[in-house]
Known about the structure:
Blueprint (H helix, E strand, L loop, with lengths): L1 E5 L2 E3 L21 E3 L1 H15 L5 E8 L4 H10 L3 E6 L6 H15 L3 E5 L10 H9 L3 E11 L2 E8 L2 E8 L2 E5 L11 H7 L4 E4 L1 H4 L27 H10 L6
Parallel strand pairs: 1-4, 1-6, 4-5, 5-11, 6-10, 7-10
Antiparallel strand pairs: 2-3, 7-8, 8-9
Pfam family, one: ETF
Protein name: Electron transfer flavoprotein subunit beta
GO molecular function: electron transfer activity
Amino acid sequence: MKILVAVKRVIDYNVKVRIKPDHSAVDLTNIKMSMNPFCEIAVEEAIRLKEKGVVSEIIVASIGSKACQETLRTALALGADRAIQVEAEDALDSLSVAKLLSKIVKEEGTDLVIMGKQAIDSDNNQTGQMLAALLDAPQATFASEVAIEGGEAIVTREVDGGLQTLAVKLPAVITTDLRLNEPRFAKLPDIMKAKRKPLDVKTPEDLGVEIKSTLEIVSVTPPPERSGGVKVGSVSELVDKLKNEAKVIA
């Protein structure tokens, strides 16, 4: 079974994000970038399925500038077999990304797509669902457990009040939640081997996709600064502050 894993290069989650002075975008100057954490989980799950003998080949794909090849090499070092970079702008909207991924899926004839439920930079949580719609394939989002049995993916997902288990026929699209697994670290020998693994570069024109965003970022602003806390001497004082200062209770 052939599996496609979509990965995205984002600002490292340990880095404090800076906003450009004109509020037009996030400032990426000299900032550490890494693989989106949800995508790391997707790569790890694909590797585990291969280790179980379920998957024969893992293809990783990323859409963006040449810099995203670094993210693809990381996935190759972790255990993916080959990679595809679609050379495009780094900030494409979700629909454009889904269209490009759908073309790759059709060209490669993959049986399953696993991807993060969202990227931590845009937090859109859209691409997996859009990809499933474009492929007319079943989807199982926010997976916390995945098993492949008899041509189906058995996916457990967390919902309000408990767990929901779905069976979706392959080919399908699965998006990963944080509780699915704990990603491994790449070993130095595997990092060296990853440099020799195949990495193809394609363009949207190669895939027959016209990139045209319908979204415009009007302004980007940081969250308001949090004020310091205060100590109270009694429950009645706490209630008074919540009622008359914070005004969160009546």
